[in-house]
Every structure is written in structure tokens, then in C-alpha cells.
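Submission checklist for the structure archive. All mandatory fields must be present; incomplete records are returned to the submitter.

[x] Identifier: Lysosomal dipeptide transporter MFSD1
[x] Organism: Cryptolaemus montrouzieri
[x] Residue count: 497
[x] Sequence attached
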Amino acid sequence: MEEPVETQEENISQQDSSTGLIHSMTHPSGFIFRFVGLLLLCFVGFGSYFCYDNPAALQDYIQEDLNLTKAQYTMLYSVYSWPNVFLGFVGGFLIDSVFGIRMGSNIYMSLTLIGQLCCSTGVWMGSYWMMLLGRFIFGLGGESLAVAQNNYAVLWFKGRVLNMVFGLQLSFARIGSTVNFMVMEDLYNSVEKSYPGIDGLAITFYLATLTCVFSFICCLLLGFMDIKTERVLRLHNTIPSDPVKMSDVKYFNKKFWLLNVVIVFFYVAVFPFIAVGKTFFMEQFNMSPSDANRICSIVYLISGFASPALGFIIDRTGRNLLWIITGVSLTMVAHACLTFFTWINPYISMSCMGIAYSILASSLWPLISLVIPEHQLGTAYGVCSALQNSGLAMFTSIVGFIIDHWGYTWCEIFFISNLSIALIATFIIFLWDLCQGDVLNLSPSARLQHQQRALNKKAVQTWPSVVWQAKAFSNLVGIKTMVLDGTNNDSEGQLKF
């Protein structure tokens, strides 16, 4: 007995629905597959950012238990950045030309985990030099891991959602930093009841290391997913490119170098400030240690929630350079309020800084992929990382020196001066881009049209060489000269002998 037509249609519909769900979960182009990949990509950096600011959350205890000056304490951040003055560039180059993204990510994540373990052991032994060594190794992996994450983001999500993906990446990373500020002191206080002094501090650092273990697992899982993605989606679509060489750096677009000026002078006004923020708020605003940690975490907390939304908005509006100008300007306002307008609630100033940080990060980093060829992006992001860390290494030490000798007011003036340089560099890029009619400050639709016109122009320019090669080939094999008729008399060009 045959089934009614309606029952057959329902069965077919259910089969199609089931097949669609399976496809979404298992195929690299499926929504669920890509969503899981995005989550893993975001969590790859969680442990690194959580552990990066462990010293800031426990600053007063570290200085007291290990008897460190502010200059020695800030060296824990400087020594993180110094190796990346060179390795940030080399790490990106190795991703492009030696390791590839998957192996590079695993290697750099391993270094991050080993560095955190070494630093925790240094705390347990009361050895300042071992803590510095651990932070050094941690830095070797942490910044190059961020370069690998950026490459993954461009490779998997290049297009209209890239700004949002960068925002999500930043969001999860900063949630890691926020959670650090919110839980580390309470965790230390709980551990310290049973293990007072350095032992309690060391156990707290070891417990923080578990976040790096979690991120390492996410890194491995993402690598397995990328193997399938490469096999299914990119096996037959890979376009051979020229081999990447270190000497390629000197041919990078001048706008790329100006973007790096913005990166260096903006971030040295944010990260070093947060590194010394706990004692800043305790001394300048008479806050308790827990309140000082809480207000320092506001920048990361706001960026954790605001970055995806702002990335989505920037994806829809474009105009990245105007967004960058807004972000830098708001950060200057925040520092000015903390210095000269102390009657304004500092929570308002730090909230302003958090929004500004989210705006800049979501609008600036995707621009690198517009000025650098895709096969050189690992090297380009490595250069950005190297320059950013050279600034952080030098300026964090300078910040500690300024505070020890002249106090926090001059330190804030120093931050505002750096932001002024970043703002000037952004205006130069804006005017240059405007005069050239380039893509950096266009809307998404106008940017797409501009890129299409550029591709068409390039195709027209390369057409004569195609004709010449065709003639040369026909003469070589001894047949009549072949002419390519590119006129539009019909729908296609024809080959005529």
C-alpha cells in the first residue's frame, strides 16, 4: 500500500531538515561548523590575556612579598615585550613561510604555557630572575600567538564580517583580562588563609596557569577543524603565490607604516596605564585594593561586551579612519579627566577609555588586510606585533621611572602626548586616503566597487601581454599567427587564425 502524497512530502522535508543540520555541523561552509570554529579561535587567546595581567591584579602583594620597587615590577611587563621587538616579526614570517598557521599556533601556545609555569615557579622560589625568565618565554609565545589568531580570522572570515570577528576576538581576550582582575585577588585571599606569604602567591599563579591549558586544548581542536576546512574548501582553490621573503617588508605600503605609528602610540597609553593602574587609583583616589582592581578591569569588561557590537556596526558603516579618530580622541579625554578633572567620577573616565579601546581595535586591525597582500599577512601582523611590543617594552619602563621620580601627574601627561602623536598620524592617513580616493575610509559598498574597478583595470593592463604570449606560442609551433579578438561584437571574444 502506497503512502499518501502528504506523508511522503513530510518525510522528504524531515530528511532534508536532518541533512541540512548535519551539513551545518560537519561541513566547513556550514553555519554551526564555522560558529564553533569562531568560538575556539576566540578562546585560543583567553589564557594568554588572563595570565598577562596576573601581576597587575596582585601588584601590591608581589611588591611586598618579593620586596620589589615599581621599576622592578614594571620590568615584568617590559621583559614580556622585549623579545617581541624581534620575534613578533620573525614569528609572523615563520607562520607564512615555515610553520603554517596550525603548527605555528601550537608552538606559540606551548611557549605561552611553559612561560607561565616558569613564572609561577619563580614566585614559589622567591626568585625574581626566574619570574623575569618566565615572563620572557611567555612573551615569546603570547604575541606570536596573537599574530596566528589574526591570520586564522582573515583566512576563515575575510569579507563583510571581518571587523565583527576581530571585535569578537578582542572581546574574548579582554574577558580573560577582566576575569583576571575580578577573581585573582579573591583567589589569593582564599589561598592565603591556608598558605600565607609567597606560597599562597605561588599557588595562585599556578591556578591561573589552568587557563593556558584550556586555551591550548582549544588551539589543538581548531587545528583539526582547519585541516578539514583546507581539504574541503581550499584544496582546489589555492592560488600559488610568490614565496614570502623577509626583504618584502621594505616594499610594504607606506600607509601600513603610518597605521603602525597609530598602533604603537595608542597602545602605550593603555596597557602600561592598566599595569600601574591599581596603585594609581589607590594613591590618587584613595581606593581599596579590591576597588582599584575593579576599576582597572572596566576597560577590559566594556571592550569584552562592546567590541563585537562595534565590529558589527563598523562592518556595516565602513569609514574605519573616522572610527579610529574617534577612539584616539576619547582615550585622550579619559586620561585628561583622570589627571586634571578629578572631580569627575573615575568610573566614567575608565568607561570612556573602554569604549574608545573597543572602537580603535575593531576598526584599525582589519585595515592591515586592505593594504597588504593576503599571502604576506602573517609577516605584516608580525611586524605590527614587533613594533607594538618595542613601544610597550620601552614605554612601560619609562612609565615606572617617571612614577618613581615625578609622580602620576607627569605620567598622565606622558600618556596624553603619545595619544596626540597617534591622532596626528591618523589625520595624515585620512587626508592621504582622501586625496588618493583609496579604500580605507570608504563604506563597504563603495570599497567593493573600488576594488572591482581596480581588478578590471589590472585585467585590461595585462591583456596586451596575453596577446603577445598567444602570438609567440603560435609562431613557435609554426601555425598562423593567432589573434585574440576582444571586441564586444558578440558576447564572447573569439580565437581567429
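[x] Structure attached
Curator remark: The two ends are 66 Å apart (CA to CA). Confidence is low (pLDDT under 50) at residues 235-241, 465-497.
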